[in-house]
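Table S2 (continued). Query chain:
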Amino acid sequence: MAMIVVALAAPLAVAGWVRLNRPDPTAAAGRFDPNIVRTVASTTTTTAPPEIVATTVPPVPELVSVAGSKLRRGVARPISSPATVADVKGSKIGLYSTAGQSEADEVFDNPTWEGLPLVFLVQQRQGDWLEVQLNTRPNQTTAWLRAADVSLRQVTHRIVVSLASRSLTVYDGQTPVMEAAVAIGDPTTPTPRGNYYIDGAVRTPDPSGVYGPYQVSVAAFSEVLMSFGSGVGQIAFHGTNAPSLVGSAVSNGCLRMRNADITRLANTVEIGTPVQIA
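Corresponding output:
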């Protein structure tokens, strides 16, 4: 029974982590891999692509106030391919409620508490400022940051998850390049719907264990479970040692995949890839 109820991914720091699309077989457990930073830096661009120019994106209709934070957050919108990803340069980054604000309302650490490089999905640009989607609660919230504090790169893939058909499709541009069945959240612990992105990935210490060979983290959080184990209730694609349950609604919110499928996913998409769950 235990293997059936395990669903939300364990904290991603438990295993040697790898940048998506470039697995590192030598990564030691819990060890930061400097090659990830070098690889990301080598693919960045300093020119903002047209799809994040402010005039092409409608204004955010509302702002969300979060208890304990001065930061007022916007609401993320769907992003089409290619998407623009912001890799944080320094050890910390300031987040702002509005573009042009003089003082930051909140500061995020880089790397994250799990030891992963901090990345955001860009929503729009206004001059020297970027609106980005955050990988924190509440789900689908955004904030502003200074463009000079990040490096920009593009990703052409996107992932679409259908909860009704319990499947995912990976697109490269408009072309589907992968389809796979997934197990979704139980009705009492549902997989959250919305627009998200891949914010990290690890190779697990036990490929035959409950999480299979990879965990691919989504910037989405259970809306029922505020914590899971020693983690914060974050959703992930991951493998399984109970493949017969793939295609069922049995998880605590995560998206379980057959081990061959999660391996293919981890070697197809990049960190920052948009994820739509509907």
